[in-house]
Design goal:
This protein has 106 residues and is an alpha+beta fold. It has 1 helix and 6 strands, in the order ββββββα.
Length: 106
């Protein structure tokens, strides 16, 4: 992880509702957020509500976002990550986060 990236673990009450192309809503929990000075963006990683109760592999969603006035992702706008280099950076940060011994099992 680059020196300019800071990880902020999500709190239990941080949730975001995502709406798919068909208008279906799904509730997600914030795993963590971080900032990257290289891309001058903030990022949020999410996992589906209730996924921590499943034994199956959890699919994690990642977005860049515009923080709200409090710096939170839950009220700001989410944007897809479309650049391959940017995806690689996000995956590296996620892998570092998951390798941490203090990470709760999802």
């Amino acid at each position: 992880m680059a020196e300019d990236e800071k990880i902020r673990p999500g709190e239990n009450d941080q949730q975001i509702t995502l709406i798919d192309d068909n208008g279906n809503e799904e509730l997600y929990n914030v795993l963590f957020t971080f900032d990257s000075e290289d891309y001058d963006k903030s990022y949020v990683l999410l996992y589906p509500e209730g996924a921590e109760d499943d034994d199956d592999e959890v699919q994690i969603e990642a977005f860049s976002y515009t923080p709200d006035a409090n710096g939170d992702a839950s009220q700001g706008d989410l944007y897809p990550i479309e650049d391959d280099d940017e995806w690689s950076m996000v995956e590296e940060v996620l892998n570092t986060f998951l390798a941490d011994d203090d990470t709760p099992d999802l």
